[in-house]
Design a protein that fits this description.
The protein is of the alpha+beta class.
Length: 821
């Protein structure tokens, strides 16, 4: 231990004697270590840290899989969920839920549309979370929420419905008043009692936006009582000792029995059971692992650069090592001293890197897609600190091995005989090997970044089927209590459309459900030419879109054939449909669908009508998703209690600036009707590619840093080589070598190393980029154009790095060089 402390003190003194060298090495390594720690802290938060619930490894996501298509993660029908609860034996508790919303009014504040969850009562039991104030609702209160008004009157039930609110809503709307528990508020135009406040930071489901309340799920609605309507998400808590695989097998057996009992609705439904953590992080995991690998490569390149610096410094210290050897120091002691200095450097860099991490994580979370941000705040916990320490030590060993190994193999008596100009062949080989490694790693990173950039360009060039420029969107959700009947709902939307269209700067106001690029859809069965739904081979699945007559004009969706809807296509008129090009191409190949019949079936029955038009395909799921067959119905004929308004601004008006006027127009139509999710269509379009932008941005930055580090490394090696070979260059010039011969000598060495690195890098890229295939859109993982362009770029940068030392070598004065020691 005493010898080790002596090495540490001596190493610290040696590093302090060369502050310039130490500063450059520490900063270079700190950037690499800091970047690795920042990315790892996000990986730790999203992938490694358990979910914020007790025994979260026992919580599983329950969904539906299709055994025919292999599709997973499907929604659950309520009646199926009831059977799951009754028959599965591996689960301690189950809960089903769906997104909901409601208007909070009449408490002195402005009307506000809240986003929340309608759930069965066991959700909080499944999660193992208790409220910070009050309590959660009971099974009896959940059953009461499903009673009709007549049933409530007959049972003389005067108790108000209940809800649990989020900590954020309690703080923002109710000023953290503890007396909020038991308070009755006007919610969705009825009196609702607040019975609990959840803890700060609780926001389940984590993949929902801004959850602010939890209310009992109404099981009496028509969708809940129809086994064919799948619209719920479900979770379960496994019994102690039961594995995810055992729970999956248990529930799979239940769904097989249900498929036999209810063949018409359940023949293609089987259980899909996955851990909740896997379900939440599955989509973001590949991108984070790619980024972690990328920053690892950047750190290795930084290590190679510092190793080259240490090799040059060790060469200058050969006489010191020779004297220490003559005084009795062993080769192992010399090597250990160099490793000690390397580890001291890397530990100092790790400390500085933690400072970089503090703002680097904030920057990462600022540009990260929202689904990653919602999964948990990143921070420097014990695992991150241990990771930083481990990386720092391994980094010190990694870049310290080369000079230590070289020092242990060199004949240290030579410097005493020949001065400082000893044998340098071994050092040159090590310098060259490190440069080759840098070039190879840089090429792998650049190819990966190039593929992602090209993929992102292809993705953003996809035509969404509409013109997003100058469009403002907002969601309008009607209260079921105030607008229980379809005519009242139609009239409420008509007034809102009319007032909004009269606002200054508005060109057109459309209505749609679901909104394009929202990721939502309504899948229903349909047939064509009036075929029976009993003929299963002629029953198809399609996405239904509900729109008003001005939606196509507001979004500038082209009508390819026929016509769009008009105000005359109302509830008193015969049913009519518009289909998208995908449906027309797939089900009417080589034919004109206009004038043909389409029949749709849902829980309200079968509706048959004429196809009056064909419109261009519109992206509803995402820019990178395939467009599915879709048909449009007029909202006057198929009314929902929710529509998204799409407001097109006139030329010269800013769409975002129309938001206050739009809110005022809707409040003018109904003083208690708030709007939610007010944003421009361009913002929604940008959000739809947020994950791809995140990947491109970070990998592009890391690849750029790697390119610069490689160029600096090559430049440093050649500059050092020119300095070491000054005497040789002088002899060559004295014997008649011309400047261009010296230029070719230096550039040839540098480009030779570069070509070897490029060859290794290309081989590695062909192997490793295949792992990125799932992150690419419209681009092959072995795209020849990208490989060629990136290779040419790296070769050009390498040539420039070689050019400057070569020019300096050309200017060497032979007489000065011959006197050089």
């Amino acid at each position: 231990m005493g010898t080790l402390l002596q090495d540490v003190r001596y190493g610290a003194r040696m590093l302090a004697k060369r502050p310039g060298f130490t500063l450059v090495a520490v900063v270079a390594l700190a950037l690499g270590i800091g970047a690795n720690t920042a990315i790892f802290s996000v990986v730790n938060s999203v992938l490694l840290r358990p979910l914020p619930y007790p025994d979260s490894e026992r919580i599983v996501q329950l969904a539906v899989a299709n055994p025919t298509t292999g599709a997973r993660g499907g929604a659950v029908a309520y009646l199926d969920f009831v059977d799951w609860q009754a028959r599965a034996r591996s689960f301690e508790a189950m809960a089903a839920y769906t997104g909901g919303s409601g208007a909070l009014t009449g408490d002195g504040g402005p009307p506000e549309q809240l986003a929340g969850v309608a759930t069965t009562p066991d959700l909080f039991r499944v999660l193992g979370v208790s409220p910070a104030l009050g309590r959660t609702f009971t099974a009896e209160e959940a059953a009461r929420a499903s009673r009709t008004e007549k049933e409530r009157e007959e049972s003389n039930d005067e108790a108000a419905p209940v809800m649990v609110i989020s900590h954020g809503l309690w703080q923002r709307r109710f000023g953290r008043d503890p007396a909020v528990v038991g308070r009755v508020v006007n919610f969705n135009n009825k009196a609702v009692e607040i019975i609990g406040v959840m803890p700060e930071g609780f926001g389940y489901p984590l993949n929902y936006d801004n959850v602010e309340f939890w209310a009992p799920f109404d099981t009496s609605n028509a969708y809940a009582q129809h086994r064919g309507a799948s619209f719920l998400e479900a979770v379960g808590r496994l019994r102690p000792g039961v594995t995810v695989e055992q729970g999956a097998a248990d529930l799979f057996a239940v769904t097989e029995h249900l498929a036999a009992e209810h063949a018409q609705t359940n023949r293609a439904r089987r259980a899909d059971v996955r851990s909740l953590h896997e379900r939440l992080v599955g989509d973001i995991k590949p991108a984070l692992l790619v980024l972690l690998a990328a920053v690892g490569c950047v750190l290795l390149i930084a290590c190679a650069n510092v190793a080259n610096l240490l090799l040059a410094r060790a060469a200058a210290r050969q006489k010191e090592f020779a004297i220490r050897t003559a005084l009795g120091a062993s080769r192992w002691r010399i090597a250990r001293q160099l490793l000690t200095e390397s580890i001291l450097l890397s530990l100092a860099a790790g400390a500085v890197g933690l400072l970089f991490t503090m703002w680097g994580v904030d920057l990462l979370m600022a540009v990260a897609p929202e689904d990653a941000v919602r999964l948990g705040a990143s921070g420097a916990d014990a695992r991150v600190l241990l990771f930083t320490l481990g990386v720092s030590v391994l980094t010190g060993v990694a870049f310290g091995l080369a000079p230590a190994r070289q020092a242990s193999r060199t004949d240290l008596s030579e410097p005493l005989k020949e001065g400082e100009r000893g044998s340098t062949a071994g050092r040159h080989r090590l310098h060259g090997a490190l440069v080759v490694a840098e070039v190879a790693l840089s090429l792998v990173l650049l190819v990966g970044a190039g593929l992602l950039i090209k993929s992102f360009q292809r993705l953003t060039a996809v035509n969404p089927g509409f013109d997003a420029e100058g469009v403002l969107t907002a969601t309008m959700t009607l209260s079921n209590n105030r607008y229980a009947e379809r005519p009242a709902q139609r009239e409420a939307f008509r007034r809102a459309f009319e007032r909004a269209a009269a606002a200054p700067g508005v060109e057109a106001v459309g209505g749609v459900y679901p909104l394009p690029l929202s990721g939502n859809d309504i899948n229903t069965n349909f047939t064509i030419d009036n075929r029976s739904f009993e003929e299963r081979e002629h029953v198809y699945r399609g996405e239904r879109k509900v729109i008003n007559h001005d939606f196509l004009r507001a979004m500038r969706v082209p009508v390819v054939r026929g016509r769009g809807f008009t105000e005359r296509d109302d509830a008193s008129a015969p049913p009519v449909f518009i289909v998208n090009e995908t449906l027309a191409r797939r089900h009417f190949p080589g034919q004109d669908p206009v004038g043909r019949l389409l029949s749709m079936r849902d829980i309200e029955g079968v509706s048959t009508g004429e196809i009056v038009g064909v419109v261009a395909d519109v992206k509803y799921e995402g820019l990178g998703e395939e467009v599915e067959p879709a048909y449009y119905v007029p909202y006057l004929q198929k009314t929902y209690d929710e529509l998204s308004l799409v407001v097109r601004a006139r030329e010269g008006f800013d769409a975002a600036a129309l938001a206050p006027a739009l809110r005022a127009a809707v409040l003018e139509a109904d003083k208690d009707q708030p709007l939610s999710e007010v944003r421009t269509m361009k913002a929604l379009l940008s959000r739809s590619v947020a994950r791809e932008r995140f990947q491109v941005l970070l990998l592009g930055v890391f690849a750029g840093v790697a390119l610069v580090l490689s160029a600096v490394g090559l430049f440093g090696v050649l500059s050092y080589s020119v300095t070491q070979r000054t005497h040789e260059i002088g002899i060559r010039m004295a014997l008649g070598a011309r400047g261009r011969d010296i230029f070719r000598l230096v550039v040839g060495r540098g480009m030779g190393l570069t070509l070897v690195g490029l060859a290794l890098g290309l081989a590695g890229s062909f192997a490793l980029t295949r792992l990125m295939a799932g992150l690419l859109y419209g681009v092959s993982a072995t795209d020849p154009a990208t490989f060629a362009a990136v290779t040419a770029l790296l070769a050009a940068v390498a040539f420039f790095a070689c050019y400057l030392p070569a020019r300096r070598a050309m200017r060497v004065d032979p007489m000065t060089a011959l006197r050089h020691e």
